[in-house]
Here is the input.
Amino acid sequence: MEVVNAIGRRKAAVARVFVSEGTGKITINKRDLANYFPSTILQFIVKQPLAKLNVAEQYDIKINLDGGGFKGQSEAARLAIARALVKINPEDKSALRSEGFVTRDPRAVERKKPGRPKARKRFQFSKR
Here is the structure.
């Protein structure tokens, strides 16, 4: 099997994923998954598409993560892994879609507007 690559984004985070046949090793920015994401919840988020299809031990995954915070990065990696798995086997798309793993989450930070302290907050109104 050749190396399959895919991209995933969430908020400001971008994940580039390279999937090849292997033993289930996940490397993020040249570090092990457990080393990069010490939180077991974030590790679980990254592994969700693999667990859903029961292929966690079949592929070696190399991920380049950039931008965003740890939560956004883990969800960007999840989307990229799901997209790569769909490239490998298109029949898996319906199973991943039912869990919501192939949908890009469009929510992002709203921009700050001029004349206001934040995006929607207003300065205190004074009548007199």
In short: The mean pLDDT is 94.
